[in-house]
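quick one, 386 residues, struct below
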Amino acid sequence: MKRSTDRFLTTHTGSLPRPDDLIQMMFAKESGVPVDSQALQARIRQAVAEVVALQTKAGVDLVNDGEMSKPSYATYIKDRLGGFGGTGNSFVYQDLADFPVLERKVFGDPGRSRRKTPACNAPITLVDGQAAHTDADNLCAAFAQVPHESAAQEMFMSAASPGVVSLFFRNDHYKDHETYLYAIAEVMRHEYESVAKAGIVLQIDCPDLAMGRHIQYADLPLPEFRKRAQMHVEALNHALANIPAEQLRMHVCWGNYEGPHHCDVDFSAIIDIVFKAKPHAISFEAANPRHAHEWTLFESVKLPEGKVLIPGVLESKTNFIEHPELIAQRIARYAHLVGRENVIAGSDCGYGTWVGQAAVDPDVVWAKLAAMAEGARIASKQFWKS
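---
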């Protein structure tokens, strides 16, 4: 994985705006309406090419496929794995439960209202082993077509962690949670290694380590939640055993929804567990009003050798375009504390977490990413004076 060796690199979390026609095709597929599979695959491949070009144009260094092929960063696994034929899962977000009107609004958006989260009711098996290869092929083909003005440009691709799969898909089959986690890890290993073997940096999405606190484990005392989070990390490391840490990054977040987030677990309460995960780089929320203050954590917490931080310098739920000077300040805060080479600028979360869910206007997304690139240039001039 590239590092900020002569300037601050830029990236984002994963999902990006999908074209309207692709959204409609995916809505139809999720609803069980017959869709021409060849036409869908062709449109996904074209959309990947389009989104890679748009990222490059905006000045993003570490680009991905925008998750064009997935209904969401986590629920896509139901189309690739067997064993998920149970009844749908229901969710209680602890912070939203205090605000029922807002809760109805959040769960009523076009993306969340359509998501399918059937419980695990049988042994987990690999059903579609080709999907990960197809995703990798689409990204590699798109990346080959864009101009590479810098050797720092690189590809990454997201995949759901065993823990977040267990969050969205209730266990109605395995004897206990640990057995369930490791069953997921064993089968997801195929996807993880397929992406890595294609020469792509693999990002593991791990909102279970933070968001899981106020959803999956809201009823547990903090010490018990920490034990569960540690178990999730151990299962993840097991699944990643054959991939070098330098080819891995992970994303930790508290949920990409417009809620109060007053029940979010403090980053300080989980940072030691996050550091135990194998991935080389850690992407996390650092721009929104609930977590922007937590950069001070690294005044007292030492970054382990070899780790890289990807703090969010862009908020992912507002149409405000962050000022490049503010972005530069946010980058500098971390660089002063952990070293310039250990910081890459990123976004808090995705801009198309669920198909059809978009808090930020698509055109604004590209303007925000361009502002991030400009902010990174400003900060780079401060830290690499020539």
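The beta strands are 62-63, 81-82, 125-126, 154-160, 201-205, 248-252, 281-284, 308-314, 346-347.
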